[in-house]
Design brief:
The chain is mainly α. It folds into 2 domains: about 425 residues, MFS general substrate transporter like domains (Growth Hormone, Chain: A, Up-down Bundle), CATH 1.20.1250.20; about 55 residues, no CATH class. It is about 75% helix and about 0% strand. The chain is globular, with a radius of gyration of 22 Å.
Length: about 500
């Protein structure tokens, strides 16, 4: 790591900004012996903000169904569109940051996130809300694609674990607090404030980022950017997920769905072809030729599909079946991310000692056990509501034990000079898993409820219980393949895997 810049005046800061260059940090801050920890603290603001927003949105969806009188397939786009935009833009911004520096793009991410959040609160129709969520996600992609790299860049090698650990802790705090904060806001202020709460945090992050973060410069400014891949990735993933999400609403013979299928397949084919031909691809898909890397990412996809299917279903079940308030539903849902955050470091320690096989298999088996409990106790009887909460905690324990070892194992299979590319592929697969989980749960819930409305409103408790159990069966079926012993090639670990562990600890709860 290069030494922090020397004392510079506010005039120098202003001149750098006007020239479109990365400004140096404030001299008074850069001279501090603890300067690098100020940088970590600044990055943690973005970590908390992103996790609060992502987990809070899940509690918001049942209220939006009422506010806009919309179908489940339409309401789910509030979450799905955000995740698809993250999946599409994170590799793009990660590559651009490598070429042109991270500080300006990171700070711009806060400004876009603030703008998107504020506009979400003013949305008067659901399509406009979905559009502003995409804008918000573009800002989130700028933040997420740079946060880990900034921490790794500023910290000494022997301190990187602590720096990334603090970032992960901030993410866990935001993730656990989000549902409760969202429930409180919905019960007291209105759904718009669930988005407006991001504005003051974003402003603080942008200001601190501008004056505290170090200059990163550019490392590969003269390399060619993969514009073809950047153009193709969004329609490829969106077309295929839209097919799943709108299947019930439009029907399998809908011309719109057929067009989505054709566009998705065509763009996916062209994207893969382009990436294989580029010398500096947006995503190095050749990594997927490694069986260990491919199987690990498939398990990563399945685990996040299962997790976010639960996150989508449970708020509807708590509010519609048990008549929970938004705050009560948020508090119950919080147990899942809290247990996930608490057990993720345990999963990492088990991986360090035992390899990936035992913690990943054990974790997913525990997750399936939690889903089994949820299937039987989600019956509409108020006396069993505590068991529903308990089952969510069990699912969180299983996911926490699974995700960190799985991520570490995936990263350990990549060559040292491909760590960034491996991380990009891992994150894209994760986002696609989240999107697929929400879209699949939404479609099956609507299909199971029957009727033409595709809504949970004005539906009997018995019908809601039956439909919810159908979704739980689907999620358990998704989780089952990931519980099998598909990781024997991960067992031979070396000291170089510690770098992968740094990434995995931070990435465990990251891009939600």
């Amino acid at each position: 790591m290069s030494a922090p810049p020397g004392p510079l005046s506010f005039r120098a800061l202003k001149a750098a900004a006007l020239e479109g260059q990365e400004p140096p940090p404030l001299p008074a801050v850069a001279r501090l012996s603890s300067y690098r920890w100020f940088v970590v603290g600044t990055v943690c603001i973005g970590a908390v903000m992103g996790q609060v927003d992502a987990s809070m949105t899940q509690v918001l969806l049942p209220r939006l169904e009422v506010e806009f009188g919309a179908r489940l397939s339409s309401v789910s786009w509030v979450a799905v569109a955000y995740l698809l935009a993250l999946a599409s833009f994170m590799p793009i911004f990660g590559r651009l940051s490598d070429m042109f520096g991270r500080k300006l793009l990171y700070t711009a991410g806060f400004l876009l996130f603030i703008a998107g959040s504020a506009l979400c609160g003013y949305a008067t129709t659901l399509p406009w809300l979905v559009f502003f969520r995409v804008l918000q996600a573009i800002g989130g992609a700028l933040i997420t694609s740079n946060s880990v790299a900034i921490v790794v860049m500023i910290m000494r090698p022997e301190e990187r674990g602590r720096g990334l650990g603090l970032q992960s802790a901030a993410q866990a705090v935001g993730l656990g607090a989000g549902p409760a904060i969202g429930g409180f806001i919905l019960d007291t202020l209105g759904w718009q404030w669930a988005f407006w709460i991001n504005v003051p945090l974003g402003i603080a992050g942008a200001i601190l980022g501008w004056f505290v973060l170090p200059q990163t410069g550019s490392t590969s400014k003269h390399e060619r950017f993969d514009w073809r891949g950047a153009i193709l990735i969004a329609p490829a993933v969106t077309g295929l997920v839209a097919l799943l999400n709108e299947l019930h609403a439009l029907g399998p013979t809908s011309p719109i769905l057929i067009a989505c299928l054709l566009v998705g397949i065509a763009c996916a084919f062209l994207f893969v072809r382009t990436e294989h031909r580029m010398s500096a691809p947006l995503l190095d898909l050749m990594l997927l030729a490694k069986p260990a890397f491919l199987l690990g990412n498939l398990a990563n996809f399945v685990s996040y599909a299962t997790l976010f299917g639960v996150f989508f279903l449970v708020p509807f079940a708590l509010v519609r079946i048990y008549q929970d308030t938004a705050l009560a539903a948020g508090l119950r849902l919080s147990i899942l991310p809290v247990m996930l955050g608490l057990l993720a470091p345990v999963g990492g320690m088990l991986y360090d000692r035992l390899g990936a096989r035992l913690p990943t298999c054990l974790g997913m088996l525990i997750c399936i056990a939690g889903l089994t409990i949820l299937y039987f106790v989600l019956d509409g009887v108020p006396a069993n509501l505590w068991l529903v909460t308990l089952s969510l905690g069990v699912i969180g324990v299983g996911q926490g034990l699974f995700i960190s070892p799985n991520s570490s194992a995936i990263m350990s299979t990549a060559p040292a000079d491909e760590t960034g590319q491996a991380g990009s592929v891992l994150n894209v697969m994760r986002m696609l898993g989240m999107s697929t989980g929400i879209a699949g749960a939404s479609t099956l819930l609507a299909l199971s409820l029957g009727g033409s409305t595709g809504s949970t409103l004005n539906i009997s408790v018995e019908s809601l219980v039956t439909a919810s159990r159908d979704v739980i069966l689907l999620l358990a079926g998704l989780a089952a393949p990931a519980s099998r012993d598909a990781t024997p090639v991960f067992e031979n670990r070396s000291s170089s895997d510690q770098a992968a562990s740094f990434f995995a600890v931070s990435a465990t709860l990251r891009p939600w």
